[in-house]
Every structure is written in structure tokens, then in C-alpha cells.
Specification:
Two copies of one chain form a homodimer. Chain A is α/β, with parallel strands linked by helices. Chain A contains 16 helices and 25 strands.
């Protein structure tokens, strides 16, 4: 019926191309804690990304090949990202906080051909390089003056390497279902799994962030979230498509965050709830007044009521997002409707703690009975498994058919999170399936117990896990980090506090005061605590 | 390399589905000039759109079938739009201001099976219905109480018709390259051409509007632009994806616009420059103070300097967009960078009059030499033809292979607009190819002459066309509409005014004072003036 057919794929690197052409002077700022502030802009980032593509192609890197990065948030990390995907290769962001043997395992599994690394990680790589046969070359993200002596194969300073390219290079089109990036799940159980992100999905999640976070034009975004973590939730693309300012930050500590917000008039930032408590509990001398209402998007765990209330008082508007590595980052949002402002603070916080509804660019989000694959009743109480499907859900794990098929059984991606659906259609997580504590046949949500603990004025962080118990099967065991100056708060006091708020069987039988083990992105590592809980008397 | 493949098409009606589920109480308001204000919301619109789909399917309408609408901006127009495309049928919006024989021509060309019409157009349709063999049924967009007696075949009141559906219906997925909507170009030369819009392109243009217009969350949009005109530039989808408030307006006159802005705290509206002059030249008693800075997106013709300056003073921020029916609406934007605010008002206006740069969701926009298909130099003076390519460019004209191939020769869509590219990459229209006046071998841009005339304090509208001339080939002939109370301004005065601003050969040889003929969307119909110019002595 129609005339000529044309095919214009959605490709994520085209975003920086557009931004460079028409918003070329928009800044990309990188701040270390003490050092000078580095400033560049979209035009430069794009020009250098083209050189990266050109240079990789000369090194024989082809569509589908994997190139690893082990790097913090800097302008160089941003530009190599675009440069790698620009030729259809896959940018494999490695979490630098992993143990060396874990890094070796995933580089071997991904069969990375090139590794680009911050100077800091050269010694670690030297230790494991003998066990990385797929890697042909190491590129150190620095210039000649700072290049260390190293035994790494074909090692070269990044600035020397790209200087060999003249940048007269054009990105070609390829299928939008080509992989653009990948990263590995943290692997709290079993081997890590490689989650592959495709151009189409990443483009649509980037657009989804623009819509759900109300990014407007030219926002100023502070990179507290690591770029290596789940594509930096796709914000490398989100920011560029709205021609915002990237403010890259290495150290996620209170003082540099407050300084950056004040200096650059930051409008948006993202982070786990732990970033919020870091800000709230900062010493007064590190805090600075905010230049305006700052949008804070949080994910990874439901924000506790006390934290939400304090963030509001501190001048942040908190938006609660939810997603997984497998969903390209956040794929659901707690949409906040004006009428909720009429509720009292505890009711508001209870509503805001819900994970909410799907992004407009996610096609399906529901809570299903994993046995029957039927949706649970919209009653706010029937537990099921949270499941996703659509463009912003990964297509599978790299070279792991068994895990991919299991994750997608019945046509939905199984999140492993247990939740309910409220009558208004908002979903709420009750727990990770493995974090549910089953005591005397009753399910206890570890989140509910943690929430009660976090309301106590002395508690900074809390994690509750199952402790094996002969009589009850399991009982709740709490690990608690107290705020500075609150070291006198006792176990008895906290148990009594919980008994005022929870059914008795839900209250912790044991409370251990300690610093909680956290991942590089601030998630509490419950698997470690579950091990420790076995020995708690 | 990967696990399961899944296909999640981008479908425009999914946008209202999402909005209804999670922003169900967001309002859709319809205002007539005098009558009561009608209020409904996304949940209702979606529920009724499902009934439209269900009812159409029962009437045998299938994927690819055309259903015409002849209607003003109302909630019913919005909901049938979604209902038609929801089953893969094509919503053919007919311009109600066309002559009856033109309406008949395009309904026959489109082979519309159903016509949905506002009550106002029943008499017109009755006159031509005998010549519309493809139409099986007429649905009058009203309820039983208002249903007129009519001879139209199988005529039914819309509310009765949808009441026969229970709404228990689900939209199925189909290919995103399925057509969603269509409309006919105004056809100033030759037969009108049917421009077909596909789901993928419309979805991406809707997203493009969100980004370029900085829509944020929950904007309040005033429908001064007709929905039937070029998909309402895709704003039916743009607004719904950001869960904004639709304020539908029938009469594009100053008083109802100012009233609507004040009553509903409108944040955004769109319109041709003529809407701006309507607002600016309104009598003082019709004007109302704006509740805040109002975003006004204009397209169709470059906004004249005087109008831009006056709009700024009146509290509007004008964004200049550019596109054609064939590009789904606006596909380029005059991106406004902060540093331009330092320029003086005439320089700002000169910069703002440029058509600008491509949308992030348009893959290609350039000015090419149509002979060689090579880009013109970026010098701001070499003339070429403006060309487009990408997802938000139509795939072709309905049943018109010859015109489609001609339009896409060399792989680019030929706009027929003549323009230049400035050193900063911004394009600027100099004229429609057919609007260029060639006088003594010199090209005269009609826009340039109009701009000069519009700067005169007495001139409300101006249009300049070629008048055949024995000696010079052509000379510029101006048609001018004077402002109220300025009827004493003479031809001689305006010619002298132009001579101060333009090379003499560019000044109008003739000036005719009259009301200018305009299309339903406010575009001046130059083809009529070209005819009249032949007889001007």
C-alpha cells in the first residue's frame, strides 16, 4: 500500500552525536575529592568517542565483541562508553570493587578482548592478567605523564592511543537489537550472570527516565550513582538526550555531594537509600544550603519513613523508582499524585515506600503466582512474585541458556522479589524471596522489621535476616548500625521498641550491633549476614 | 548468543492505556465558546476508546481499514482516535473546512469505511453521501437527545453506538510499522496527497515533543491547534505520555484562549504565527493576565521579529518549531541557548526566526542541492532544498507511488522548502520553492519582503507573491491586512517603508489591502493570491 520503506534504528550513540552537534557547549564536569575540577563538553566527548571507535576498529574490534571498562565516574568513562557501542561492540562495565578472582571470572566469561582501566586498578589487573587469555590489550585511562610502568600486555596510555586516530570517522547504522552494553549481576548466590543491554531497550529506558523523572531541558545531574552499576541506570543516555550537564563524582561522601550541588546548581541525582542517610547524617559543617528543590531518585530498597520525612525537610523531593539489573535499571516508579500531599507524614511515607507502577516504556509489570502465572488479587495483601516483560527487560543472560529460560519461564521475567498489588494498582515489595523469614510457619517480612528498627532515633542502618532455630524453624536476627553518639542504645531497648510496633513473633530475637557489610553501590550484603546469623547466640 | 527473543512493538494507543491506569483522574476538559465546560478524565477516555474498538470490530472493521473523523477538538475526537488505531485501523482526520467536493474526493481516495462526524457536518455529508460508495455507516458524535433526523446511511448517535459495547475488550499487539493515522496535504497544487502515519514514527515524534518542548510532568496543554491538522502535531500522544491535562478548545479566538489559560493554568500551547497575532492584537478587555510564563510552540511560518518581541513582553516564551505534514508535524526546533539572551532584541528575533536543528528523534535534516544531492556550504547564504529522513518521516503517500518516489528521490524526503544552513548548523527557510519570486533573474524571498512589511506598525498580516511582468518576468505583489484603526496607511507609505529596509528590486511593485484568505489552520493561501495577483493593475 505504501511507497519506499526505510529503516532507522534506535541507536544509543546517536544520542551523543545529536547532543554534540546542537548542544556542543553543554558541560561534562568531573570532580575528585581534592583535585582540580575537570571540565569538558558534549562536542569534545563526541569527537573523542569517534576516535575511540576508529582506534578500536583499527585494533580489529568488531560488532558483538566485548570491551571491558574498570573505572569510576569520569568524562573518559563516558566517552569510551559511546565509542565502544558506536561500532556495535559491547561496553562491559566491571564493578571495580569486586575481588580480583571475581573480576577474572567475569572477564573470562565475557571473553573481553580489550580492557580499559583507571590507573588505580593496574596493580590488581597485573595480578590476574596471566589468567585472562581473551584480553589482547590493556588501555590505561590516563595520559603519558601519568602512565605507570606495567607488565600488562600491549599496555598503552589512553591519550596516546586515541591520539593515533584522526577522528575522521562516521558511525554506521546497524540493527537496534544489537547489544550495546553489559554488566554482571552481583551474584549473591551462584556464579555472576552477564546481563546484556540492547540499543532499543536502553534507548527506551533512557526516554522513560526523561518522562518519569520529569527531566525537562538542560537538567544538571550529579553522578553519585556509579556508571558501572547497571548502566548507571541508563542516565549516560538520559542526560545526553535532554542535553543536561553531567557532573561526575568519584567519592560518594556528604561533603563533596553538598559542594557539587551548591557549585553547579544540581537539579537531579540518584542513589540508594544509603546515600540519603549519608546526606542526612552528615556533620553540620559539611552541609550546604540547596540552591533550589533538588530531585532525588532512589531505588534498590524502599526508603524508610524516617528518611523520607527528613529528606523532605532537607529540601529534596524524593522519587521512588524500582527495577533490577535485568530491567536496564528502574522500570517502575511511585507516581506521586497531588492529592497525597493532603495525607499526614506517616501515611505519605507509607504510600511512597511502594514500588509503584510501570514506566510508560515498560509493557508489563505485575505480581503473579509463580505456580499458576495468574495475577494476585489487588488487595494489598496476597503475596506473589513481581514479574516484568517488555522492551526494557533484558533478552537473556550471556551464554547462560539455562538461567535465561528459567528467568523467563511463562513469558515473564521473574524478579525473585515478593510483593503485593494495592487496589490502586501500585505494587509493593514485601521481600526478596530468599529474604522472607519463616518462623513457626508464619512469613515475616524482613523489610517490615527493618522499617520498625529504622524509626528508632538511634538506628542508622538495620538489616534483618533469618537465624536457624530448632523450635521455630527460623527467627528474625537483626544487625544494627547505631548513629554516632548513640552507642548506649541497648538490644533490650530496641526489642521493646519493636514490640510496640510489630506482632511479637516478628520482633528480632537477637540484635547484633556492628558495621553492616555493603556492596560497592551501598546495598547491604544480606548473604554475609545470613552466614553470621548462624553463629549468633 | 542470547536467550529468548521477544517483540514489544511501540504502539500509540498503549500510551492512553498507561495514562488511564496510572493517571486515571488526570483531566480532559472541553470548552466551547459559550456552552458549559465538559470534564472527563483519562480513565474514562480509555474505557470509551475500548468500546469504540470493540464496536468497530463488531462492525467488521479490520487492521488497515480507514475510519474518517470530521470533528473539532473535543474529548470524543480524542477517544475515537485511540479507539480506531487500537485495532490497527487508520484514523483519517478530515479537515472540516474543506469544500464538500474536496471532502468527497479524499474520502473516496482513502476508501473510508466509516465516517464519524460532529453534528455540525451532517448537512454537508448528506449532500455528498450519494458519491461515497465506500462508506458503510455514519456515526454522529453526539447523544440520542441531540441526534438529528438524517438520510445518512446507517446513521447512529455515537453514544448509542458505543453503549452497545460492554468495554470488556483488550487491545492486541501488532507490528509497530502498522499505520495509525492519516491526513491529506492541503493540496495547493494538484490533487491532495494522503500522508500515512505509522505507530513507530508517531510514538517517536510524541517523545520528541516531550524532549524538545521540555514538557516535564503533568503539563496543562491548550488545544488551539486542530486535532485534525497533521495529527495535532502528535500532541494527542505527547500529552498523554506525560500525563498532562488536555484542554480542548473549539474557537481559536483571543477571549476563549485567555480565559482558558487563566482558568486552567495552562502551561503549553501551539499555534501558527497567526494565533500569536490574534492574542497580541486582542482588545484590552479580552486579555487576562497569565498565571505564569506560558510556553508557546509555533510552527508553519517563521515568527516575525515584531511578533516575537511582543510575545515576550506579553509573558509567553516562544519556541519555534518546523516540519511538514510529511514529517508527522514538527521535526526541527530552534534550540535556544542561554548565551543568546545577551543579544539585542532584533538579533534575538533574527536568530529565533531560524528553523533550527533536527529533533533528537529525527535522524537526518539537511539542506541539499537537489541536483547533486550534496549538502550546501554552511555559510548562511547558499540556497538549497530542505530535506528530511528518519523515523519521523512518512513512508509514502497513500496509493500514490509516483508522488512517493518523487518525494523520496535520492533517499531523502524533499520538502519543497528552500533554505540555507548557518555556520552553527541551524537551517533557515528562505522560501517555498514555488514562493520564490524571480525578478529580472534575481531571486526574491517572499518571506524577506513580508518580514519588512510586518515591522510596520499598521500591518497585521502580509503575504507577498509573484505577479507576472512583461519586462521583469515577475515582480513582488503584496497583499496586506491592516490593523484596526490603521486604515489610512497607504500603499505609497508602505513602499517607502520597504525601500528603507530592502534592496529596491525586492520592494513590492503593487500593494493590495484586503482580508487574506487563510486555511483552517491559519496558513495564508498563497495560491489564491497568486491567482489574484495576475489581475492586479
Amino acid at each position: 500500500m505504501l511507497g519506499l520503506m526505510q529503516d532507522w534504528p534506535l541507536l544509543c550513540h546517536r544520542i551523543i552525536e545529536h547532543a554534540a552537534k546542537y548542544h556542543g557547549t553543554q558541560e561534562v564536569i568531573t570532580r575528585s575529592v581534592e583535585g582540580p575540577i575537570h571540565r569538558t563538553n558534549y562536542a569534545e566527548i563526541h569527537a573523542r568517542a569517534l576516535k575511540v571507535s576508529q582506534r578500536l576498529e583499527r585494533d580489529g574490534i568488531k560488532l558483538g565483541d566485548r570491551v571491558a571498562t574498570i573505572a569510576w565516574n569520569t568524562w573518559r568513562h563516558l566517552e569510551v562508553w559511546y565509542g565502544i557501542m558506536g561500532i556495535g561492540a559491547i561496553c562491559h562495565t566491571v564493578n571495580p570493587r569486586l575481588f580480583p578472582e571475581q573480576i577474572a571470572w567475569i572477564i573470562n566469561h565475557a571473553q573481553d578482548r580489550v580492557v580499559m582501566t583507571d590507573i588505580t586498578f593496574v596493580p590488581v589487573l597485573e595480578k590476574i592478567a596471566g589468567d585472562l587469555p581473551s584480553v589482547e590489550r590493556y588501555i590505561v585511562l590516563t595520559d603519558r605523564a601519568h602512565m605507570p610502568q606495567t607488565t600488562l600486555k600491549n599496555a598503552v596510555a589512553y591519550e596516546d592511543w586515541i591520539a593515533e586516530a584522526d577522528g575522521k570517522f562516521e558511525w554506521k547504522n546497524f540493527d537496534e537489537n544489537t547489544a550495546a552494553a553489559m554488566c554482571y549481576t552481583s551474584g549473591t548466590t551462584g556464579d555472576p550472570k552477564g546481563v546484556v543491554y540492547h540499543h532499543r531497550g536502553a534507548y527506551l529506558l533512557a526516554v522513560g527516565n526523561v518522562i518519569t523523572c520529569g527531566m525537562g531541558k538542560h537538567p544538571v545531574y550529579l553522578w553519585t550513582l556509579p556508571m558501572f552499576h547497571c548502566n548507571g541506570w541508563c542516565f549516560p543516555w538520559t542526560l545526553s538526550i535532554v542535553a543536561g550537564t553531567h557532573v561526575c563524582l568519584r567519592a560518594v561522601r556528604a561533603a563533596p555531594i553538598f559542594n557539587a550541588i551548591a557549585d553547579h546548581k544540581v537539579t537531579h541525582l540518584c542513589g540508594a537509600p544509603i546515600v540519603m542517610s549519608t546526606l542526612l547524617n552528615a556533620p553540620a559543617e559539611e552541609k550546604k544550603p540547596l540552591p533550589h528543590l533538588v530531585q532525588f531518585a532512589t531505588a534498590a530498597a524502599p526508603p524508610p519513613e524516617a528518611v523520607l520525612a527528613a529528606m523532605k525537610d532537607a529540601g529534596f523531593n524524593v522519587t521512588h523508582l524500582y527495577g533490577l539489573t535485568e530491567t536496564y535499571g528502574p522500570a517502575s516508579i511511585n507516581e506521586w499524585h497531588g492529592e497525597r500531599e493532603a495525607l499526614g507524614p506517616p501515611d505519605q511515607a507509607a504510600k511512597k515506600a511502594r514500588q509503584g507502577v510501570r514506566y510508560p516504556t515498560l509493557e508489563g509489570l505485575d505480581v503473579l503466582d509463580p505456580e499458576t502465572m495468574q495475577p494476585v488479587p489487588r488487595d494489598g495483601s496476597t503475596l506473589g512474585e513481581v514479574m516484568f516483560r517488555g522492551n526494557v527487560v533484558m533478552k537473556g543472560y550471556l551464554k547462560n541458556k539455562v538461567a535465561s529460560e528459567k528467568a523467563f519461564s511463562g513469558g515473564w521475567f521473574h524478579s525473585g522479589d515478593l510483593g503485593v498489588v494495592h487496589p490502586d494498582g501500585y505494587i509493593q515489595l514485601k521481600d526478596r524471596s530468599k529474604d522472607i523469614i519463616i518462623s513457626g510457619g508464619e512469613n515475616i517480612s524482613s523489610i517490615e522489621v527493618e522499617d520498625a528498627l529504622l524509626k528508632h532515633p538511634s538506628v542508622l542502618h538495620a538489616a534483618v535476616v533469618a537465624r536457624p532455630d530448632e523450635k521455630w524453624g527460623e527467627t528474625p536476627c537483626a544487625f544494627v548500625e547505631r548513629k554516632k553518639g548513640h552507642n548506649k542504645t541497648t538490644e533490650r531497648e530496641l526489642v521493646a521498641w519493636c514490640r510496640d510496633m510489630l506482632a511479637h513473633y516478628k520482633c528480632p530475637r537477637h540484635i547484633v550491633f556492628c558495621e553492616l557489610p555493603k556492596t560497592s553501590t551501598g546495598k547491604i550484603q544480606k548473604f554475609k549476614l545470613r552466614e553470621r546469623a548462624k553463629g549468633v547466640e
